[in-house]
Amino acid sequence: MRIADRPAFAGSGLDRAARLRGDAEGLVAMLQGGRVLPVWRGKPLCHGDRLGWVGAGHPVLAGAEPAVFLGLDGDAPCFAADISDWAPEAGAEAVASGFFDPTVQTHPALPPDMGFAELRGMMLLLSLRDAELAATAKALVQWHRSHRFCSACGAASVPAEAGWQRRCPACAAQHFPRTDPVVIMLVTRGNRALVGRSPGWPEGMFSCLAGFIEPGETVEAAVRREVQEETGITIGRVEYRTSQPWPFPASLMIGCHAWAETESITLDPAELDDALWITREEMVAVMAGLHPRVKPARPGAIAHALIANWLADIRD
């Protein structure tokens, strides 16, 4: 079975050029001749429906953290720099709290048509290449900001290998960017699919069930455990479908199709506010935005792809 709807952030084929990460002198030259993506508190700089690249000496990068090397876009070296310590001027649009931040912050050193935007809102506007670069940049700069100290001895660590490592000068430990594996599964039983909603989600928002893989656990075991814990439903067969980098903050979503052997729902209220079975015919209305209770999964998210694939029933 093949996937009908490609998730965002996946599939551009970026040359990550790991072979160049240890060439400190070469990277300095590439940075001076390349382009840099500023990232402010998890928001990449955007210019319309594109990323907002600047040169290495641009004033917006004053006080930035050391640039990290993202890879080569064709022959163009691409970097990202964390400028989260910059504070917007009084009167600038404030960051909104909640599930999604629609605000855009502008910087006095940049044109007014460039601003820092929430990546969830930009993921369908960006090209495949820009989306992969943005997801990589966001995950890397946030990892550096949250892992400044060695987990082995507690000393301050320093960036290395063009931003793809942190090294401890005290005990010589090496630390690598963290990616958290998450299973997300379309659970079906006959002509129906299971959807649920987490506490705090916007009204009407339902999605496929999902959860982190635990140490010592296979993907299939994680699917079965998460569904059982959250809804009390027993899962039999599990098949992999597709995956998606999800930089909120740094997950890899592993999309599966799971076949339920039972259907009675017993909610874990700490995990889910609600869960329900939706027939294939109802799901068509959901995806069209016509269902009275359930809103469609966000386009670009892996849940949307899993549901679209199930509705299309595409087979090789």
From TrEMBL:
<keyword id="KW-0460">Magnesium</keyword>
<dbReference type="GO" id="GO:0005829">
    <property type="term" value="C:cytosol"/>
</dbReference>
<dbReference type="GO" id="GO:0006742">
    <property type="term" value="P:NADP+ catabolic process"/>
</dbReference>
<dbReference type="InterPro" id="IPR020476">
    <property type="entry name" value="Nudix_hydrolase"/>
</dbReference>
<dbReference type="GO" id="GO:0019677">
    <property type="term" value="P:NAD+ catabolic process"/>
</dbReference>
<keyword id="KW-0479">Metal-binding</keyword>
<protein>
    <recommendedName>
        <fullName>NAD(+) diphosphatase</fullName>
        <ecNumber>3.6.1.22</ecNumber>
    </recommendedName>
</protein>
<keyword id="KW-0520">NAD</keyword>
<dbReference type="InterPro" id="IPR049734">
    <property type="entry name" value="NudC-like_C"/>
</dbReference>
<feature type="domain" description="Nudix hydrolase">
    <location>
        <begin position="177"/>
        <end position="303"/>
    </location>
</feature>
<dbReference type="Pfam" id="PF00293">
    <property type="entry name" value="NUDIX"/>
</dbReference>
<comment type="similarity">
    <text>Belongs to the Nudix hydrolase family. NudC subfamily.</text>
</comment>
<dbReference type="Pfam" id="PF09297">
    <property type="entry name" value="Zn_ribbon_NUD"/>
</dbReference>
<dbReference type="InterPro" id="IPR015376">
    <property type="entry name" value="Znr_NADH_PPase"/>
</dbReference>
<dbReference type="GO" id="GO:0035529">
    <property type="term" value="F:NADH pyrophosphatase activity"/>
</dbReference>
<dbReference type="InterPro" id="IPR000086">
    <property type="entry name" value="NUDIX_hydrolase_dom"/>
</dbReference>
<dbReference type="InterPro" id="IPR015797">
    <property type="entry name" value="NUDIX_hydrolase-like_dom_sf"/>
</dbReference>
<dbReference type="InterPro" id="IPR020084">
    <property type="entry name" value="NUDIX_hydrolase_CS"/>
</dbReference>
<dbReference type="Pfam" id="PF09296">
    <property type="entry name" value="NUDIX-like"/>
</dbReference>
<dbReference type="InterPro" id="IPR050241">
    <property type="entry name" value="NAD-cap_RNA_hydrolase_NudC"/>
</dbReference>
<dbReference type="InterPro" id="IPR015375">
    <property type="entry name" value="NADH_PPase-like_N"/>
</dbReference>
<keyword id="KW-0378">Hydrolase</keyword>
<dbReference type="GO" id="GO:0046872">
    <property type="term" value="F:metal ion binding"/>
</dbReference>
